[in-house]
Amino acid sequence: MALDIDSYIGMQAQALKVQSRRTELLAANLANADTPGYKARDIDFREALSAAGYGTGTGSAPLPMARTSAGHVDGLGSGTAADGTLKYRVPLAPALDGNTVDAQLEQAAFAENAVRYQATLTLINSKLRSLMTAITGQ
Amino acid sequence: MSSFSIFDIAGSGMSAQSVRLNTVASNLANAESVSGTAAGAYRARHPVFKAEQPADPSDPGAGVAVQGIVESTQAPDKHYDPGNPLANSDGYVYSPNVNTVAEMVDMISASRSYQNNVEVMNTARTLMLATLKLGQ
């Protein structure tokens, strides 16, 4: 049986990508904490992962509509898969200048995301280590 | 790897906050600089921040840019101080429209935001170094 490295660490690799994107997004939110009119955004992790083909199997992934003509839309929204997973945060207390960044909330999300990123790295590392054990037999 | 742009984003936030700190320093330093005319009085300066929308809308990174610095339009305070060499013929001097309490609050807010961006950069650095060590 041939081992496919891609499917072996596939889900973790996708998770790492989404988490890295989320780090970037939360960094942008924190950088714009004082920008008037800036709307905080976040990634729906579950949706981003199921858009990459790694759904949780709970039936949460949207099904495309059948297309009988090239002009039809699939009903999944436009743009790339990563587009639809970007969501605006619902503000608890929006500022008068239209800014919806809650610095404490963003900090907490950033810290949580960093830990999850490191957890994913640890998972990939342990998978690679078991692969090495299998290769070297030691 | 796209997460290199985190350094740009956090860096733009840091530079914007340092502009804000600079204006606060300028406002506080000039809080007592009186002038003989209303037009010549120092006016409080504040930076205007704007999010830098990336060319590709699916790109999450949006840094912050200082669009400009505006001067407060509030009328300067007029004081009767005939002993001041800068006083006009009626003995009045005009002091800047700087609200020192608001400036101090602004300074704390700018300093905290700057620290936030530094922490973001530090965390991103740690994560990327950990990614580099993958498989070792």
Q: Helix/strand/pairing class of chain B, anyone? A: alpha+beta
Shape verdict of chain B: elongated
Cα-atom radius of gyration of chain A: 19 Å
Oligomer: heterodimer
Mean pLDDT of chain B: 89
Written as H for each helix and E for each strand, in order along the chain, the element string of chain A is: HHEHEH
Average pLDDT level of chain A = 82
| CA(first)-CA(last) distance of chain A | 21 Å
What's the total helix number of chain B? 2
Number of helices of chain A: 4
Mind describing the biggest β-sheet of chain A? 2 strands, antiparallel
Strand order of the largest sheet of chain A: 1-2
Query: How many E-type strands of chain B?
Result: 4
Greatest interface (CB-CB under 8 A), with counts per chain: A-B, 36 and 39 residues
Which radius of gyration of chain B do the C-alpha atoms yield?
22 Å
> What is the beta-strand fraction of chain B?
15-25%
How many domains make up the 3D coordinates of chain A? 1
Task: Enumerate the spans of chain A where pLDDT stays under 50 for 5 or more consecutive residues.
Answer: 78-82
Number of distinct beta strands of chain A: 2
Give, in order, the helices and strands of chain B. Answer: HEEEEH
- Estimate the helix proportion of chain B, in percent: 40-55%
